[in-house]
Amino acid sequence: MRAKDAVGRYGERVAARHLEQQGLQVLDRNWRGSGGELDLLARDGDVLVAVEVKTRRGTAFGHPAEAVTAAKLGRIRRLTGEWLAVHGARPGGPRFAEVRVDVVAVVLPRAGAAQVEHLVGVL
To answer: Where are the transmembrane segments (predicted)?
Structure first.
């Protein structure tokens, strides 16, 4: 596994743990659809949350959340609809009252704990 991929996987584990500590239930990780991958899907009460995780070793090239572009958000939206179709659920149906997209930015400093920022409802 490339070092960049290992950093990303570690960031996803940190993000999942953060979400669970905030009371969300992680439903799926690294779900692959026809147009890409969703990092995490979680339940926040009756809300389905698609979570994009961005991890960086520092902020020299910008904050990790800055890498989430409008095109990326569109892809997340389409993939979330596909996930719902595959799992037999619909927004407003019995399983989920609504759907939202969150971003979890993880910065891994040279020393110390990972810094986590959770941006709720970016789309």
So the answer is: none
3-class secondary-structure state, position 34: coil
The CATH number given to whatever domain includes residue 11 is 3.40.1350.10
Q: What is the spatial distance between Cα 106 and Cα 118, in angstroms, rounded to a whole number?
A: 9
Give the up-direction half-sphere exposure of residue 11: CA atoms within 13 A in the CB hemisphere.
Answer: 28
Instruction: Find residue 56's DSSP bridge partners.
Output: 107
In which element (H, E) is residue 28 found? strand 25-33
> pLDDT tens, 33-52?
998 999 999 999 999 999 99
Of the candidates 121, 118, 122, the one whose C-alpha atom is nearest the C-alpha of residue 11 is 118
Maximum pairwise Cα distance, the chain: 46
Instruction: Sheet with 25-33: list strands edge to edge.
Output: 25-33, 36-44, 47-56, 98-107, 115-119
Domain of residue 29 covers 3-119
In whole angstroms, what is the distance from residue 16 CA to residue 97 CA?
A: 22
Q: Are 106 and 59 in contact (CB under 8 A)?
A: no
- pTM for this entry: 0.91
